[in-house]
Amino acid sequence: MGDSAKHKREGRIRRHNRLRRKIRGSSERPRLAVFRSNRNITAQIIDDDKGHTVASASSLEAEVRSSGVKGVEAAEKVGQLVGERAKAAGVETIVFDRGGLKYHGRVAAVANAAREAGLEF
């Protein structure tokens, strides 16, 4: 990894740690954590009290990949899937964890699609 890529990654991790001091998921209100790489995006609903993942979705899943969408459209599909899976698991309200990333583009698309799927945050 080059110096600039290493610096960007360390900055994101620093921002995420700063956010995680304030954001904590519980059984009543779990955390929706978003991770974005250059190609893919992953979202997990996490109960931090138990250290347990309640629901998850990724652009690497066959359901998303077979639809042939990429970028923001894939992120919307991931948000929709994680929202549906969370509702099926009995989760209604969540805390959003953007993972040290800007609330923009694919990260915002996941959040908006999860809201449309019925999650409140």
**Average pLDDT, all residues:** 95
Largest sheet: 4 strands, mixed
Strand content of the residues, in percent? Answer: 15-25%
Secondary-structure-derived class = alpha+beta
Which characteristics define this entry?
19% strand; 4-stranded mixed β-sheet; 121 residues; alpha+beta
Can you describe this structure?
The protein is α+β, with helices and mostly antiparallel strands and 121 residues long. Helices cover 41% and strands 19% of the residues. It is built from four helices and four strands, in the order H-E-E-E-H-H-E-H. The chain has helices at residues 3-20, 62-65, 72-88, 106-116; strands at residues 31-36, 41-47, 52-58, 95-97. A four-stranded mixed β-sheet has the order 3-2-1-4. Helix 3 (72-88) packs parallel to helix 4 (106-116).
Furnish the topology, listing elements before pairings.
Elements: H1 3-20, E1 31-36, E2 41-47, E3 52-58, H2 62-65, H3 72-88, E4 95-97, H4 106-116
Helix pairs in contact: 3-4
Summarize the structure.
The radius of gyration is 14 Å and the shape is globular.
